[in-house]
Design a protein that fits this description.
single chain, alpha/beta, D-Maltodextrin-Binding Protein, domain 2, 5-stranded mixed β-sheet, 11 helices, 14 strands, 37% helix, 21% strand, disordered N terminus
């Protein structure tokens, strides 16, 4: 269901545009006016007369759009401010955009948040909870065909492995960490960055690779869509639970806005976030839950263990 208010949505924003220039479209003022806002007005809950909300590219933008429109519409009403949604090209573009003051709030993957925190001053506010209010988690996984001779991560030496994309927590860093823990040099594995979680899964089901990362969120989505039958495959590795994606705010913004934003996000109804939560395997959905930097401490430790920098995102 599309939101009733015509929220500005910029899909697949180019890295250069998003990082160096404000990428709002020509319809921003019209959208704000028709929604009952005073275009261009600023207040404690409406910096610069709008809120620029960055979304990580973890799914097809055409699928993400209607889900985030529902969340953004509810947030607009809470803050009395138009929300401009921007789906970025990649993880690094989102970090760079917030660092350059082109995003006010953003949802990052857990690893992306590590570098957004360190390089852009991003502050984690909330994440996705279940119906009991408990913060949800997901896991990374490596899968092979059911009849594959590969039975462990160590057996991936000399094999092809599809990963989602550079900078992804479950689709890059954690599978690479699994190789390191198993004593397998990355140079000894033919790693293929497929371009996203769905693409990595397709590379496996189409027989293009010997193994692929499939995280628990993508697994649930593919099963629901009828595009993946786990009975024909085996999972040879699973990560520890990963706290779900945080929604963050730029640390350079007025503390009064940061407080108002957190209160507004925590005040959203489960139905306001359910469509987004469905992509993150949050079922049944609950309201958003408060998180802090400490919630993601294991990801800071992971980045240190792998020697990752923002260039790896």
């Amino acid at each position: 269901m599309r939101a009733k208010r015509p929220i500005m949505f910029v899909a697949a924003v180019s890295s250069l545009c998003l990082a160096l220039a404000a990428c709002g479209g020509t319809g921003t003022d019209a959208a704000a006016g028709s929604a009952g806002f005073t275009a261009g007005s600023a207040s404690a809950t409406c910096p610069d007369g709008r809120i620029r909300f960055g979304i990580e590219p973890y799914e097809d933008p055409a699928k993400l759009k209607p889900a985030y429109e529902v969340l953004a519409s509810a947030l607009e009403k809470k803050l009395n401010c138009p929300v401009e949604l921007q789906v970025v090209d990649d993880y690094s573009a989102e970090v760079l955009a917030m660092r350059n003051g082109k995003l006010d709030i953003a949802q990052f993957g857990p690893l992306g948040y590590v570098f957004a925190s360190e390089k852009a001053g991003a502050q984690a506010l909330v994440s996705f909870a279940d119906s009991s209010g408990r913060l949800t988690t997901y896991t990374a996984g490596i899968w092979v065909p059911k009849d594959s001779p590969i039975t462990s991560v160590a057996d991936l030496k000399g094999r092809t492995l599809a990963l989602g994309g550079t900078g992804s927590t479950s689709g890059d860093a954690l599978p690479r960490y699994a190789l390191k823990q198993a004593g397998v040099a990355e140079a000894d594995v033919k790693i293929n960055y497929a371009g996203g979680h769905p693409e990595a899964l397709l590379a496996l089901t189409n027989g293009k690779v010997d193994a692929a990362e499939i995280n628990s969120q993508q697994l649930a989505a593919a099963q629901a869509a009828g595009t993946f039958d786990p009975a024909g495959y085996r999972r040879i590795w699973t990560s520890d639970p990963i706290p779900n994606d945080p929604i963050t705010v730029a640390g350079t913004l007025d503390p009064a806005f940061r407080t108002a934003l957190k209160d507004a996000l925590l005040g959203l109804e489960p139905g306001d976030v359910a469509k987004v939560g469905a992509f993150l395997d949050v079922d049944p959905p609950g309201p958003l839950a408060e998180v802090t930097r400490d919630t993601y401490r294991p990801l800071f430790d992971l980045a240190a263990a792998l020697g990752l920098t923002e260039k790896d995102v």
